[in-house]
Every structure is written in C-alpha cells, then in structure tokens.
Amino acid sequence: MNRSKTGEELDGALDTWILNKRRELIEDIKTLVRIPSISAAPNGKYPFGEPCGAVVDSMEGLIRKHGLGVKSYDYYGIGALYGKDTAERLSSNSIGFFSHLDVVPPGDGWTGSPFEGREQDGFIIGRGATDNKGPAVAVLYTLKFLQDQGIVLKHGLYAFFGCNEEAGMQDIAHFLEVDNPPAFGLVSDSSFPVCNGEKGILTADFVANLGEGNLVRFEGGTVSNMVPNYASVELRGIGAEEARAVLGSDFTVEALEGSGQPGGALVRISARGISGHAAFPENSVNALQKLAAGILKANLAQGDAVPALTFVADSFADYYGEGLNIAFEDELSGKTTHVGSTGATREGKLIIGINVRYAITSPQEELVERLRQRGAAYGYTLEKIHNRPPCYTPADDPLVIALNDIANRHLGTDLKPFVMGGGTHARRLPRAVGYGPERRDIPSPFGPLEGKAHQVNEAVSVASLEEAIHIYVQAILKLDELLS
Ligand SMILES: [Zn+2]
Prior knowledge:
The chain is α+β, with helices and mostly antiparallel strands. The protein contains eleven helices and 26 strands.
C-alpha cells in the first residue's frame, strides 16, 4: 500500500482538519440549499430545467474550489474526481460515491423560506438539506481530506452528483451510458450502518370514468413519492351552506361561480393532511383519503362519484398494502407499504396515482393482478404500470460486513445491515449499498412530522455529517484494501 498514514492516524488528523473546515462546510451546503433545484422538464441545454442546471454549476464551483477534478455529465449531474488518474480509471476499477442535488417540492407549512438555508442549533434547515445536498457536500469533503493528506489509492475514486434522483433517475441512467459502473458504489442517501437492499417500487394509475355523478374536479398531490398534504374536489348540486353543515370544521368549503347553472350549485371542498415520504408513510395523513372519506361520510357524493371516492377512502386508509390487497411482508425487508400520492380529473376521468414499496420476496406478477382486481371492484382500470424490481446485496458479503463494522465502531452502535423502502441510485448499480449519513437509531429532534427527507423544515445535523466524513474516510481505505 502506498500510504503514509494508518487509518487511525488519519482519523486523528481529520478531527483537527474538520474543525478548521466547519464554517466552510456549512456555507457550501447553504450555497446549494439556496438553489430550488426541483427536477423539471428539459429547457435548452438543461435536461432537468434551469434550477438543476444552476445547482450543477454551483457544485462545479465547489469541486474546483477544493482542487478536485471535474467531470461533466451534460447537466444530468456532475462528477468530482480524486487523484490524477481517476478520469482514465473511471471506466474500470473505481470506488464511486453517489448523491443527488435535485430536491422534491417544498410543500407548505415551513417556518421561514424552504430555500434559505437557515442555521439552528447545529442544524441547517431547508429543502434538500439532508436529501441530499448536505450528504453530497460531506462526500466532497471526504475526497478533499484524502487529497490534503496525500493518500494514494490503488483504485480510482470519484463522486457523482445527479440531478434527477427524485423524478425518474435519468441522471444515473445517463451516467451508466457514459461510464461503466464502479467496482463498488456507496450511496450517501440512506442511513448508517449499511442499507444492503431496497424494496421493489411499483407505480401505477387507477383510472375511473366519472360519467354519471356530481364529481367535477379532483386535485391533490404533485409527485409520486410523497404523501399529499392537500386535496380538493368540486361537487355539483351541493350548496356551500349545506356542505359546511355536514362536513364539520376539518374541511374547507367554498361556493364557486357557476352556481345557478344547470345542475345546480358548485362547491369546492378541500382537506389538509400531513406530508411524508412515500417509502416511510408512518405518521403522515393522506389528504386524498381524508377528503374522500369525509365526503362519503357526509353523503355528498352522487352517482359514479360514490364508487370512485369509495376506492380512494378504502384503499388508502392504511399504509401496509391492506387497502390494495397486497400486504406481503418478509423477514428481510418487513412490510410492503403503499400510498395514494396523486389525484386528478382529466376528460371525465378520475386518475389516482399509487406508489407501492413491496417486500423483496413479493410475487411481482401476482402483485399487478391483485391491483387490477382491486381496482375493477370499484370500476377502475389499471394504467401506466411501472415496476422497478428490488435490489439486495447479501448481509454476509465481506464488503457489507466491513462497512457495517466501520459504521458501528464510529457511532458506538451495534446495528445490523437493513433493507429499506426508499429507492436510491443503489438499485441502478450492480454492486452498491446505501451508506449513511442519517441515523436510524436516533429520533429526529423535530418530532415525527418534521425535519426529515421530504418533510417540512427538512434539516441536516452538521455533527452527523462530520461523523459521516470520518466513516467515509475509513470506508474508502477499507474498500481500497479489500477490492481486487
Ligand atoms: Zn434522496
């Protein structure tokens, strides 16, 4: 090994190094958080819209500032290269970090602006702070530290920062068109110790004809991977006073223009829920379900609106597959989860989008058939089925064991590798695991409804990022030693 320092010596050196770098690290994260980089439609040279272009330019500036090599991926993302020959070795025998710079929409209910990068009690708060800009900067500092220490590695080392992770993963698809996959990939978009598997992800639309009924419009949810916190419907033939009287204070009722038209009064009813990540729906409240159930309970739906809304009320009353008759679970990955994430009316049809994270051993063919049957019972057809199969690296893989030990040693924990419902770049790579930087063993100081990925007041702990850099440095040394 061509190294001047042992892992232990490096760990000690990192303590001092990080202390001197802390302010700069915080400012670098805030620079990225201030860009509202929600992955969007192509715009000129930007495949995911201008804000994602801006975040790539900004990250390129940080990579250059820290003296690392830059690799362009035509605004699908940006690469940071370690050492002189990583560029040549990218296509052969490298260790790759994978993070993303795109974010989900902020939603409402934030304290202050979601794109301000506010600091509070050791946290940076803002959309994307922990998912995934803070961790991306931690990875960048890992490479920077190794470079400052003059560490020579046998393998190439790089970091890829994508811009479409939350909205279709075209970023990693582009990466794999340009470069070969790494010998081993570390995805910094998970929790410690090691996430060695991801559940399958199935998305689909349930579509019902509204032909005969009083449901004119239904709207709620903007993206597939979030539990919606707002939904509204427009019903014909119902007066606002009447609706208010039967619905109670949990719903907002407005009389709309067009009342007095054929068919009678038009009223808009809306409900608020609590948003959450589709893969971790516990503690969220689905506004689509709440609204449909409320309207049915108040007997305000008529004709075809009744089965259409009953489907929404029944299907999304739980998160564990019961409502869609797909409640598979196994020891490796736990329960299947499901959410109804979007609702919309188009051309006389009600379209309900679902997002299912199914247990690794679920029978995939049967899953789709069960969904079809469930929908049919309420007059729905199943369309736009998109299945991303699960991925799994055995927990007894020597590299998984080594990475797990490093994380446990640094965190003072005794945790086992785990499988999660979240979908990351790891599932697109032949050999990769999720590796931090979140902690599964520590509850969020913001409570169950705030502070985490996809939630309001999303936050990242600076101390946990510093801990992650310690772990990442040791992981690189270990992988460099263990990989052929
Ligand atoms: Zn993420």
